[in-house]
Structures are given as C-alpha cells and as structure tokens.
C-alpha cells in the first residue's frame, strides 16, 4: 500500500514545501504493477494537476511534475517533452522508474522554479543533454534523449524522486532568488540579474515549515 501524505480532499493539490515526502527517496514500482489501478490512477492525477497549472505566462506554469509533489512516494514523473520555459503548454509524457543513463559533459546555466519551493527560484548548472530510460504507462521500456530546456526539466523532476530540490543543487547563495508569484513573467526574462536574493537560511526554514 502506498503511504499517503495528503487528505482525500487535497488529493488533487500539491503538498507544501515542508512536507516530509519531498525529502524522501521514492519507491520503485514493480513492472507488474504498472498496469494496475493504483499506478494508472496516479498517472491520471499527475496529468490533471499539471494541466490545471498551465496557460498564463505571467505566472508559474508546470512543465513537469513528480508524484512526491502530490504526496505519493512513487517513482513516476511527467515531463514537458517540448517545453521551452516561456509559460507555454507543453506536450506532457509519463516516465515510470526513470533513470538517467547518459549525461553530456556540456553544462548549461539556467533558471529554475518549483511549486515545491514556494517563492524560491534560482540559477542551476545542469547537463545540456541527457538520455532517460523509463517505462510508459503501458509497461513498455523505452529511452528518450532530451536537449536544452527539456533536459533541465527531466533532471529537475528525477531529482524529486531522490528527495532533492533544485536549491540543494545551488552552491553559491547569490544564485538563490526570491520571486513573488506575480513576478514570474519578469523573472523568465531577467533571471540573470534578479535583484532579490533568498538567504540560504530562509530556504532551509521553508523546508522545515518555519
């Protein structure tokens, strides 16, 4: 039985940043369970939540989502296959038990935000290309190569399955930023020179719910 960290009333909502589930290593799903109702329902919920937070480029939109973000410690993510990070509605695809099997040596600096970090955004160094191996919802093993922004999304979402959020990848605190929800449109453009920093201690207190 999957351990749940949410009430039934909140099942369609993402858990807050202080939730324990966001710091756990998620459970791998047995291949024989993929076609079962529990996992199929989980995938459907991920898509519903993601589609419910898209469509207005002035505000943060979802280009990916991991099941721990809705309170379920299972290794399932959905990724925007053609995401460009401009507030668009990307094509979303499910990845079950995803594993990064190749990382390019070429690294790229880029902005990231997350509904699981509240108003904390930041600049993160990631591989520009990755190859991911995973199962789809039909239980078929496949591989997909990502490049550019979708590669960033893939790494970000798979990090969630290992209890890692992007601020934990940032070693220079000047790259941790505080962005109000109404400012996300501006942040997409001005992230390199964002004037408001988020102290590391503030991020740590957010994780603890303080």
State the fourth-level CATH superfamily: Peptide deformylase
Order of helices and strands: HEEEEEEEHEHH
Strand order of the largest sheet: 1-2-3-6-7
* Total beta-strand segments: 8
Radius of gyration from CA coordinates: 16 Å
Question: What is the average per-residue confidence, as pLDDT, rounded to a whole number?
Answer: 89
Gross geometry: globular
Question: Care to describe what's here?
Answer:
The protein is α+β, with helices and mostly antiparallel strands. It has a 5-stranded antiparallel beta sheet, sandwiched between helices. It has a 3-stranded antiparallel beta sheet with strand order 4-5-8. The chain is built from 4 helices and 8 strands, in the order αβββββββαβαα. Strand 6 and strand 7 form a beta hairpin. It has a single domain, classed as Alpha-Beta Complex (Peptide Deformylase), CATH 3.90.45. The N terminus is likely disordered. 20% of the residues lie in helices and 24% in strands. The chain is globular, with a radius of gyration of 16 Å.
């Amino acid at each position: 039985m999957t351990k749940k960290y949410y009430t039934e009333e909140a099942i369609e909502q993402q858990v807050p940043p202080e939730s324990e589930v966001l710091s756990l290593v998620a459970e791998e799903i047995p291949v024989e369970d993929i076609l079962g109702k529990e996992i199929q329902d989980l995938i459907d919920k991920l898509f519903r939540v993601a589609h419910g937070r898209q469509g207005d480029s002035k505000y943060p939109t979802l280009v990916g989502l991991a099941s721990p973000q809705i309170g379920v410690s299972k290794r399932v993510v959905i990724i925007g296959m053609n995401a460009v990070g401009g507030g668009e509605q990307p094509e979303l695809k499910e990845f079950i038990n995803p594993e990064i099997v190749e990382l390019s040596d070429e690294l790229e600096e880029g902005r990231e935000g997350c509904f699981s970090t509240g108003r904390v955004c930041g600049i993160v160094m990631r591989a520009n290309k990755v190859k991911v191996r995973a199962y789809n919802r039909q239980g078929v093993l496949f591989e997909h190569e990502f490049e550019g922004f979708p590669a960033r999304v893939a790494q970000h979402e798979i990090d969630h399955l290992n209890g890692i959020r992007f601020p934990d990848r940032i070693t220079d605190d000047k790259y941790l930023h505080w962005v109000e929800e109404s400012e996300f449109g501006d942040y997409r453009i001005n992230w390199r020179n964002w004037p408001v920093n988020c102290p590391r201690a503030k991020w740590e207190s957010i994780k603890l719910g303080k």
